[in-house]
Amino acid sequence: MSDPASSNPTPSDPAASSSAAPAAAARTPQPGAPQPAGAKPAVILISSIVARGGVGTRVMTFTLERLGHRVWQVPTIFLPWHPGHGRATRIVPPDDAFAAALADLARAPWLAEVGAVISGYLGSAAQAEAVAGLVAALKAANPAALYVCDPVVGDEGGLYVPEATATAVRDVLLPIADVATPNVFELGWATGRTITTPDEAANAARALGPARVLATSAPAMMKGALATIFATPDSAYLAEHPRVEGAPNGVGDLICAMLTDALLSGAGAEAALTRAASTTYEMVVRSVKAGADELVYHAAQEAIVSPAARVQVRRLATASPRRVARPLTGG
Ligand SMILES: Nc1ncnc2c1ncn2[C@@H]1O[C@H](COP(=O)(O)OP(=O)(O)OP(=O)(O)O)[C@@H](O)[C@H]1O
Ligand SMILES: [Mg+2]
């Protein structure tokens, strides 16, 4: 394992001792058993897995585990590397097997330990229905649980998933999401709007549907800068920092994981945005400085816990508050 967070077992870590099996069995949470004191909620993470690189579940699992969450990892597709590095084999689980596995998770006796589901890149349109079923089961077990939908369907060049998959994300998943984290292309595509200013991005975020929307890579106020806008029913905040040439992929995944942790921790909108954007910006800068073609989240992992960078955040006055039918859940 190259994961430094798991490479220094403490003497009390049963996985490090030869008597691991009985100790691990004793620790297995029983249905309805209380969580360990101070434990953060588990997160079900549904997205891609690459062999080399840091996109999708790789950076998100590391980030969430580094912050103290247990992660239930559900791969939607296996790829040797990010498609941006060149063509390679794609292995997508059969739709019926994927649906069956998610149905198993939906009836898992430990569902009450889960505080959030995050969905990201999907391998097929049919996977959306399976994700929706799991979200419904989680909400039934824990009404305060969050569903965070990262509608990973495209970027500046257009859609990079089949249109049927993008449509399923828009029509099946976004309507049931508590939180969405589209990039500005995805926000424009899903709302049918043209976005050229921060206010247009904030208004589109409010029109998307979910109560809380993080719009990434949005138009900024300053030249040469990028904005990340967090719109909630009663506020909209904009974080801004310089655009860095050569940023690796995976930043959208990282910021989604950071935002989810902040919301699960009870942070308010401004604090959640500040922390998520500061960590992401610092990770971009450190990856580019290292000359890396992937995020260097292992080497720069302290930026996940306490970023040294602090992006500028301001409240947007122009975006009008809107009413939502659904109550806010989960902080
Ligand atoms: N070139 C860049 N320079 C500095 N920060 C960046 C850059 N690109 C992205 N970021 C930061 O990362 C955040 C998320 O990035 P982005 O909008 O590209 O996500 P995404 O498109 O969902 O993910 P990805 O591009 O990894 O597929 C942005 O809001 C911004 O804060
Ligand atoms: Mg992007």
UniProtKB/TrEMBL annotation:
Q: Which GO terms describe its molecular function?
A: ATP binding; hydroxymethylpyrimidine kinase activity; pyridoxal kinase activity
Report the enzyme's class at the first EC level: transferase
State its Enzyme Commission number(s). Answer: 2.7.1.35
Q: Which UniProt keywords apply?
A: ATP-binding, Kinase, Nucleotide-binding, Transferase
Could you tell me which Pfam families the record lists for this protein?
Phos_pyr_kin
Segments carrying the region annotation (Disordered) are 1-37
Identify the Gene3D superfamilies for this entry: 3.40.1190.20
Name a single GO biological process.
pyridoxal 5'-phosphate salvage
Record-level GO cellular component terms = cytosol
Q: Where is the Pyridoxamine kinase/Phosphomethylpyrimidine kinase domain?
A: 114-292
Q: What is this protein called?
A: pyridoxal kinase
Task: Give the source species.
Answer: Segnochrobactrum spirostomi
